Amino acid sequence: MPNPKRRMSKSRRDKRRAHYKPATPTLSVCPQCGAVKLPHRACPECGYYNGRKILSKL
Amino acid sequence: MRHLKKGWKLKRTRSHRKALLRNLAISLLEHKKIVTTVAKAKALRPFVEKIITRAKRAVLRERNGQLPEGQSLDIHSRRVVGRLIHNKAIVQELFDTIAPTVIDRPGGYTRIVKLGFRRGDAAELAAIELVDWGAPQDGAVSLKSKKKAATKKKTTSQSKKLSKKTKEEPVSSKPEEAVPIVEHKDSIEPTTQTSVVEEEVPSFAETKQEHETHEASPEISSETITDEKTELENTEESKPQEKKEE
User: What is the pLDDT of residue B141?
Assistant: First the structure.
């Protein structure tokens, strides 16, 4: 069976992993309160979505 | 291939899924608005809308007298719905109040709004509500956003410095309405005093009113007005923090 000739050095391993990073989520600004929120979702700060109060818990 | 395989399995057996949808539908019809996961909300929508349509058509038939002789109520529809909604009071409400309200609506009785992710299992939540019972569009976005955006740009950079200033000011110089807010603000940083706690949590409307009264009162110098404005903003901003502490 073919096998790797060399053990993968930690340098090469870590260099590969250097590109593993979480993607930044797309964000939008709440037109109601100006807070940063996820698009297409009610604003967690003011509870508004589309000019309508969705959540009353604050 | 998922050709023609519509619907959501929700990781449940058929009977379990049926029970879940019935329970969700009863809750939605009872409370008009429920918060659940996005998948369940989307599965619930066709289920409950078909029931509402059935009730709506029954009410229409009753009004137009298109029933078999000797009947004033569409008993059959009530029985069919009753098979799905195992709650007589809710069936009654559906035919008596919900169906007449949505009678002119050609479907689309529910609205789903995504709310973000639940802590614990990171499930995405959504609110599903009956459209006719939802909060009306109050146009608050167009009004408030301009006001707030304008004031925020000015003040956010200086707000920290100004908040220190406002603290040093004697409380007596301010009008009476502002006093509870000042206490409320002070109570956040040190240990909360039990006497003050009852007075705090001013609603949005109250703070707005006070905002206007400050502008109207001529005795206060312009500097104090700006300080209080920023202070009001600070209190608004600090509200969520305070809730987290609780």
Answer: 53
Contact B58, B119 (CB under 8 A): no
Say what the ipTM of the complex is: 0.79
Cβ distance of A41 and B144 shorter than 8 Å? no
User: Which residues contact residue B195 at a Cβ distance below 8 angstroms, ignoring those fewer than 6 apart?
Assistant: none
- Residue A44, pLDDT score: 87
Exposure class string for B39-70: b at 16+ Cβ within 10 A, else e: ebbbbbbebbbebbbbbbebbebbeeeeeeee
The amino acid present at B4, given as its one-letter code, is: L
Residue B76's domain spans which residues?
14-138
**pLDDT tens-digit series, residues A7-56:** 999 999 999 999 999 999 999 999 888 899 999 999 888 888 887 777 76
Nearest by CB: A51 against B138, B239, B243: B138
The minimum CA-CA distance between A22 and chain B, rounded to whole Å, is 16
Examine residue B68 and state whether it is found in any structural domain, yes or no: yes
- Vertex A20 angle, CA A15 and A22, to 5°: 150
From the CA of B142, how many Å to the nearest CA of chain A?
8
Q: Which residues of B touch A28 (CB under 8 A)?
A: none
- Classify residue B148: in a domain, yes or no: no
